[in-house]
Specification:
It is built from 14 helices and twelve strands. By secondary structure, it is α/β, with parallel strands linked by helices. Strand 4, helix 6 and strand 5 form a beta-alpha-beta unit. Bound molecules: ligand P1T. Ligand P1T binds next to helix 3 and helix 4.
Length: 377
């Protein structure tokens, strides 16, 4: 079955107890057992919950994975994957990732003995040079946050295979509608379901998808042992969002393509980052590995922080906020918001300038959005 159909049906059969067409919110912490060890598959909701299970099955189907596991946030899902590693192992991570991923590696995982190096995402050949005898995992995000750079997943997968490394890909920005890392050779996919998957800026969640039995067993054990699971209501909200993912992604992209074309020519815009523009460095690989370019645009405004601040204060439809992927348009100032955990030098090294703005293009009318940007300019 095609993606749109699976998004509505997979994992979401009518409720066997009542026939309810929509998977109920099983708001329960525990389950009655007929006798010791005799139950209907559920014992305690940290270990398993039917609403969460429906979400996990649905997400697995969308990412073409055998297994799905849901977490209480994208960061919790990321942490679960890092926990496949042990003290003394080495990870190679893209040098441009969500600030919270970098913070987790630098401030939490390193404390427990994980070693990490960062490869230049503009030059994927730099990746191999960082491999050491204790390297176990490659981590990348594509499109990257916040400069929307595109990394060749198949290329990274070949390196991972050759050196027996786990390739993990954060697919949050593309969503499974536009990109399927497992089909391109990745072993694990991670999502912040907070974003496009849930799609309505009303829930925090994360997910891990894989088809590897051993890794799944280990991740499933961790999910129960560490306990960062989403509640049934949060699981239900993500599940509801998923049903419309395909139509939303198409509409996000249409609006983003329109605004990117407008911004590209604007005199107040110094540089624009959108993988769907032919002028963008990642355009060729994006065309090859994605079926669409998504709804995120970043750009540098002429001037400095003062001009940026003024521009933001004039916007009426774009709300200044962290996050992305909701139906409403947002503007974010990465240096102080999503990438505030990088030092000024670390940001400069990565080309995250003080005049950078990131737009999450929502589903409002594209002309209204353009007018909002125009009056703010
Ligand atoms: O916020 P949370 O659900 O924990 O997800 C973390 C996360 C993981 N991966 C990527 C690519 C992300 O962008 C995020 C969260 N990002 C934002 C909040 C943001 O505004 O970019």
């Amino acid at each position: 079955m095609k993606f749109e159909t699976r998004a509505i049906h997979d994992g979401q059969k009518p409720d066997p107890a009542t026939g309810a067409v929509i998977v109920p919110v099983y708001q329960t912490s525990t389950y009655q057992q007929e006798a010791v060890g005799k139950h209907k598959g559920y014992e305690y909701s940290r270990t398993g919950n039917p609403t969460r299970k429906a979400l996990e099955d649905s997400l697995a189907s969308l990412e073409e994975a055998q297994y799905g596991l849901a977490f209480s946030s994208g960061v919790a899902a990321t942490h679960a994957i890092f926990n496949l590693l042990k003290n003394g192992d080495h990870i190679i991570c893209g040098d441009e990732v969500y600030g919270g991923t970098y913070r987790l590696i630098e401030k939490v995982m390193k404390k427990w003995g994980l070693e990490a190096d960062y490869f230049d995402v503009d030059d994927i050949s730099s990746l191999s040079k960082l491999i050491k005898p204790n390297t176990k995992m490659i981590w990348l995000e594509t499109p990257t946050n916040p400069l929307l750079k595109i990394i060749d997943i198949s290329y990274a997968a070949r390196i991972a295979k050759k050196h027996k490394l786990i390739l993990a890909v954060d697919n949050t920005f593309a969503s499974p509608y536009f990109q399927k890392p497992l089909e391109l050779g990745a072993a694990i996919v991670v999502h912040s379901t907070t974003k496009y998957l849930a799609g309505h800026s009303d829930v925090i969640g994360g997910a891990v998808l894989t088809s590897d039995n051993k890794m799944y067993d280990s991740l499933k054990f961790y999910q129960n042992a560490a306990g960062a699971v989403p509640g049934p209501w949060d699981s239900w909200l993500v599940l509801r969002g998923i049903k419309t993912l395909a139509v939303r992604m198409k509409a996000h992209e249409q609006n983003a393509l329109y605004l990117a074309g407008y911004l590209e020519k604007h005199l107040r815009v110094e540089k624009i980052y959108y993988p769907g523009l032919k002028s963008n460095k990642g355009y060729g690989i994006a065309r090859k590995q994605m079926s669409g370019y998504g709804g995120m645009i970043s750009f540098e405004l002429k001037g400095g922080f003062r001009q940026v601040n003024k521009f933001i204060s004039k916007l009426k439809l774009f709300s200044l906020a962290e996050s992305l992927g909701g139906v409403e348009s947002l503007v974010c100032y990465p240096p102080k918001m999503t990438h505030g955990s990088f030092s000024q030098t670390e940001r400069e090294q990565r080309g995250i300038k003080d005049n950078l703005l990131r737009l999450s293009v929502g589903l409002e009318n594209k002309e209204d959005l353009k007018r909002d940007l125009e009056q703010a300019f």
